Amino acid sequence: NTKEPWRPFNSSRVYMADLESALHYSLRVEVAAHPVIRKDALTSLKKYVAVLAKYFPGRPVVMNLLRSVDRWLQSQPGDEIQYEALEGILDNSAQTPNTALPEGETWVGCQGSQPHLRRYPCGVWTLFHVLTVVQSSSGGSTDPREVLGAMRGYVRSFFGCRHCAEHFENMARESMVGVRTAPAAAAWLWSRHNVVNNRLAGALSEDPNFPKIQWPSPEMCPSCHTVDANGDHKWNDKEVLRFLPSYFSASGILTDYLE
Ligand code: FAD
Question: Subcellular location, in the record's words (predicted)?
Answer without folding.
Answer: Secreted
